[in-house]
């Protein structure tokens, strides 16, 4: 895996010159095998020792669920039955640092790290039809999003945060109101994308986005009880 394979058919030189850090980019599905499918995600979730509170987050109605509700105090890791219960309620799942346990994703992070001389990590997001896990937000880093299963709808707003290096200090509802007021109008058709399996997206760190909404699938990941 290298940057050329990740961006194909777009030339990496053109991407760096014309797109990177300047404007969002959507690349339609490529013909390679998906990096991670539902079965693969379930397998990763079965590696119990990885899923500590800092590596697994559940989001419901724009708010994170307190880890006390799904972390087993005896092991310090996620309790499968509790996680699956929240997913059944519509919670979005965020799995952090998955390159540590997924060789295919580690190849992607290493390729990006080599291309941009940067520290890169891979997070997995799973959400479901009719549910938007996150409110509008901006990231403090460049984002390469690879759609592995289902379909998601992205909307990127017109305005940009001014080179953010830290979250808004106030946090909570006040910070969210500031973001919503400053984001500007919704993007035109070039800034709306329906991401299908194997599609790729790049979003500069300053772009407000409403966290892709809804995954068109009837399947959901299951947490096994395998340990490592």
The gist of it:
The chain has 228 residues and is of the alpha+beta class. It is built from six helices and eleven strands.
Task: Give structural notes.
The chain is of the alpha+beta class. 24% of the residues lie in helices and 16% in strands. The chain contains 6 helices and 11 strands. It has helices spanning 3-7, 12-19, 38-45, 80-88, 103-116, 172-182; strands at 25-27, 56-60, 63-64, 71-72, 77-78, 92-95, 124-126, 143-146, 152-155, 192-195, 200-203. The strands form 4 sheets. It has a 4-stranded antiparallel β-sheet, covered by helices on one side. Strands 1-11-8 form a 3-stranded antiparallel β-sheet, with no helix packed on it. The two termini are 26 Å apart.
Secondary structure elements and pairings:
Blueprint: H1 3-7, H2 12-19, E1 25-27, H3 38-45, E2 56-60, E3 63-64, E4 71-72, E5 77-78, H4 80-88, E6 92-95, H5 103-116, E7 124-126, E8 143-146, E9 152-155, H6 172-182, E10 192-195, E11 200-203
Antiparallel strand pairs: 1-11, 2-3, 2-6, 4-5, 6-7, 8-11, 9-10
Topology as a string of helices (H) and strands (E): HHEHEEEEHEHEEEHEE
Low-confidence parts: 209-218
Summed over residues and divided by their number, the pLDDT gives a mean of 80
Count the strands? 11
Largest sheet: 4 strands, antiparallel
Tell me the span between the first and last alpha carbons. Answer: 26 Å
> Helix amount, in percent?
10-25%
